[in-house]
Amino acid sequence: MAMASTLARCLHNRQSRFDTVDRPCSTGDRLAKTVLLEDQRGYVAAVIPST
């Protein structure tokens, strides 16, 4: 699965250094979901289990 364009744009706009890496598929118990949240100070990323 490709990186979401919104996340890539957010990282780029914040001048964050990041790389994408192609790798084999993983099962759901080995994955996490990232949720971007916004408050008065800006954005924060929360990482939660995918299952």
Characterise the protein shown here.
By secondary structure, the chain is an alpha+beta fold. It has one domain. The chain has 1 helix and 2 strands; from the N terminus they run H-E-E. It has one helix at 5-13, and strands at residues 32-39, 42-49. Strand 1 and strand 2 (42-49) form a beta hairpin. The two termini are 17 Å apart.
Keywords:
51 residues; flat; 31% strand; alpha+beta; single chain
Question: How do you describe this structure in short?
Answer:
With 51 residues, the protein is an alpha+beta fold. It has one helix at 5-13; strands spanning 32-39, 42-49.
Largest β-sheet summary: 2 strands, antiparallel
Q: What kind of oligomer do you see? A: single chain
- Cα separation of the termini: 17 Å
Strand order of the largest sheet: 1-2
- As a percent range, the share of strand residues is 25-35%
Secondary-structure class: alpha+beta
Rg, please? 13 Å
User: Could you name the ranges where pLDDT drops below 50 across 5 or more consecutive residues?
Assistant: none
Look at the structure and give the mean pLDDT. Answer: 84
Number of helices: 1
Number of structural units classed as domains: 1
Number of strands: 2
Overall geometry comes to: flat
User: What helical percentage do the residues reach?
Assistant: 10-25%
Order of helices and strands: HEE
Write the layout of secondary structure elements.
Blueprint: H1 5-13, E1 32-39, E2 42-49
Antiparallel strand pairs: 1-2
